[in-house]
């Protein structure tokens, strides 16, 4: 078993325990034990957001594009790592930080325009530009809002708020 948290000693990069791995993982806790790092999921991803992460294990990079929940990564995997497509893909949700242009009183609605689930709505405020309001109950964690954000103010993680 690979303990990714112990790798922090030898790297400057922060290993995030809440990073999004892959959708429909049957057991995220046993992912490093069962994944053979074959790379089939990387090849199968239609938006090419699955990359080799820490230790060569696949992870999702939303700065590239969004997850379309096509299930091709699961179908390509030779191991039994994934649940049925009818299950919830993951518990990942987006979060918007204080770097957001709208919070700096600069008009920007890029994230809301990309959000198909309409989890990001903008509310009008007196004397300010419209402010983003993220409904985590509507967010499916697809990451469509991440790549379009000009200030990298949005992060998708498994952290439960």
Automatic annotation (TrEMBL):
List where in the cell it is found.
Answer: Cytoplasm
User: Which SUPFAM superfamilies does the record associate with it?
Assistant: 4Fe-4S ferredoxins
Query: Which amino acid positions bind [4Fe-4S] cluster 3, per UniProt?
Result: 139, 142, 145, 149
Per UniProt, residues of the 4Fe-4S ferredoxin-type domain are 26-55, 56-87, 130-159
Subunit info here reads: Interacts with the cytoplasmic NapA precursor.
The record's HAMAP family line, in alphabetical order, gives: NapF
Protein's name according to its UniProt entry: Ferredoxin-type protein NapF
What species was this sequence derived from?
Answer: Vibrio ponticus
Per the record, the gene is napF
């Amino acid at each position: 078993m690979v303990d990714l948290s112990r790798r922090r000693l030898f790297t400057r990069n922060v290993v995030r325990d809440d990073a999004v791995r892959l959708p429909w993982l049957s057991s995220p806790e046993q992912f490093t034990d069962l994944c053979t790092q074959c790379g089939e999921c990387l090849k199968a991803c239609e938006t090419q957001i699955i990359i080799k992460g820490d230790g060569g294990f696949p992870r999702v990079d939303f700065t590239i594009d969004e997850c379309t929940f096509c299930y091709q990564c699961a179908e390509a995997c030779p191991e039994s790592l994934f649940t049925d497509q009818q299950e919830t893909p993951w518990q990942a949700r987006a979060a918007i930080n204080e770097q957001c242009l709208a919070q700096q009183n600069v008009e920007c609605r890029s994230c809301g325009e990309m959000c198909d689930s309409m989890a990001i709505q903008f509310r009008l405020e007196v004397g300010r530009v419209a402010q983003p309001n993220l409904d985590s109950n509507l967010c499916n964690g697809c990451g469509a809002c991440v790549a379009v954000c000009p200030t990298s103010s949005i992060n998708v993680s498994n952290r439960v708020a």
